[in-house]
Design brief:
The chain has one domain. 52% of the residues lie in helices and 12% in strands. It contains six helices and five strands. Strands 1-4-5-3-2 form a five-stranded mixed sheet, sandwiched between helices. Helix 2 crosses helix 4 and helix 4 crosses helix 6. The protein starts with a strand and ends in a 6-residue tail after the last helix.
Length: 165
């Protein structure tokens, strides 16, 4: 996930994420799998440039990726998941991209090579983990333990960003 420059999201009620993560994970996984499946049905395949970017950041099966450009990114309808996403900075008004398995959501007007390569690196991380159900617990535990910007998967994705457009 890649934030848009701007202010930090408001979190509303603060959740003890370390304590609540085990309980929230099944709902988060179900939501992510549902959003991913829907996006894979309607999303566009990567362009030739996108395929090159995906391969260059380690994606094994770039042809499986589907890109959805949207006016807004998916947001969990469950109030607890939504609050947790905002609290961690995972989703919110500053988020420009979101990857769920092979589905990449990009906020309209933000589809740069840098963002696509960042999100494709998350696809690579998903491939290594094997599924949304195995990747998401690892990713969310990193966010809870280290914070969004210091999470190892986020650091890795930033290190694999390709700037030239």
């Amino acid at each position: 996930m890649q934030p848009v420059a701007g202010s930090a999201p408001s979190s509303g009620d603060v959740i003890d994420l370390a304590a609540e993560l085990p309980r929230l994970l099944p709902k988060a996984i179900a939501w992510a799998e549902q959003e991913s499946a829907a996006a894979l049905e309607v999303g566009a395949p990567l362009t030739e440039t996108g395929l090159r970017l995906a391969r260059s950041v380690g994606v094994q099966f770039p042809e499986r990726i589907r890109l959805v450009e949207a006016a807004s990114l998916p947001f969990p309808p469950d109030p607890e998941l939504g609050a947790a996403a905002l609290q961690t900075g995972l989703l919110g008004p500053t988020t420009a991209g979101l990857t769920l398995g092979y589905a990449i959501f990009i906020l309209k007007g933000h589809g740069s090579n840098r963002l696509i390569s960042h999100e494709c690196r998350h696809v690579h991380q998903h491939e290594v983990a094997g599924s949304i159900a195995t990747f998401l617990p690892l990713y969310l535990q990193q966010i809870v333990s280290y914070g969004y910007h210091q999470a190892p998967y986020e650091i890795d994705a930033r290190e694999h960003e390709i700037d030239p457009d």
